[in-house]
Amino acid sequence: MSIRGALTNRDAVQMVRTGACELGVVATDTPLRDTEVHVHPLVRQAFVLLAPRDGPFRPGAPVPVRELSGRRLIVGHEGSGMRRFADRLLAEGLDARIAVESEHRVSILPLVLGGAGLAVVTDAWRGLAEQAGVLVLELDPTDHLHVALISRKGPLTAAARAFVEHATAPV
């Protein structure tokens, strides 16, 4: 077994479609509809704000997006869901600036804790962020990512079939 990274959803679909990988995980702004691979929807994740505990926002209170004006943002690489969300906010007139762009998601929590800026990530980060001492706040309004498992159209190995069955089983 091997695990490979793809920088974009299109890259992930291409890797699965061509057989470079049997399975992939994608996160898209709208539910993925692709005829080149099988799409197995998994979860819909809301975007939340990560801020230092001693930062400008109170714990538990939703943060209106307009209150991000004048703030420094930490964003993912071009093509990532969190980057697309931040870019949409900026295109809609939010007066914030991108302070850090990172391809390495493991750097986001230390950057927030170190005061480099605020990060908009999906709610899937909540547990890890709270354990690290980062404040996780709801955004108003927010948006969502649709996470799906993708598999090739051809036959899958027994391990891949078992993984798909387990990942898509009702909880």
Please explain how this structure is put together:
This protein has 171 residues and is an alpha/beta fold. It folds into 2 domains: 9-43 and 146-168, no CATH class; 46-142, 3-Layer(aba) Sandwich (D-Maltodextrin-Binding Protein, domain 2), CATH 3.40.190. It has 5 helices and 8 strands. Helix 2 (81-91) links the parallel strand 4 (72-76) and strand 5 (97-102). The chain starts with 8 loop residues before the first helix and ends with a helix. The mean pLDDT is 94.
| Count of discrete structural domains | 2
CATH class of the largest domain: Alpha Beta
- Number of beta strands: 8
Q: Based on helices, strands and strand pairing, what is the structural class?
A: alpha/beta
By CATH, the superfamily of the largest domain comes out as Periplasmic binding protein-like II
Helix content: 25-40%
Quote the beta fraction: 25-35%
- According to CATH, what is the topology of the largest domain? D-Maltodextrin-Binding Protein, domain 2
Number of helices: 5
- Any idea what the CATH architecture of the largest domain is? 3-Layer(aba) Sandwich
Evaluate the radius of gyration. 18 Å
